[in-house]
Amino acid sequence: MSSFLPIIILMYRFVWVGDSVRPRKSGYGNKNICGANIERIRKAQGMKQIVLVSRMQLMGVDIDPSSLSKLEGQVRIATDIELKAIARILGVSMDELVAESDID
Fold this sequence. Notes:
With 104 residues, the chain is mostly helical. The protein has one domain (1-16, 48-104). Helices cover 55% and strands 0% of the residues. It has six helices and no strands. It has helices spanning 5-17, 35-44, 49-58, 65-72, 80-90, 94-98. The longest helix is centred in the N-terminal third of the chain and has 13 residues, at 5-17.
């Protein structure tokens, strides 16, 4: 029971107290190709970042809301463990997460 306490506190803090959607302040970075796809798929499913973070934490992935935001903003590298968890949670393949839509 005590292992769920940080997640419950985290969800209370971000979901019930601060449940607003903020637009991206800056454009996407260049550290990964999956971030924009993750954000697009997550939003299409109506899932908030904190829900994705909480589900990843329950799967044993060490991630926080700021880290997911940076991943989606393509300003940090995504690990294979994170991609596997995200694909499973979103119900898509890892290939779909790393697909490039605009190949130059």
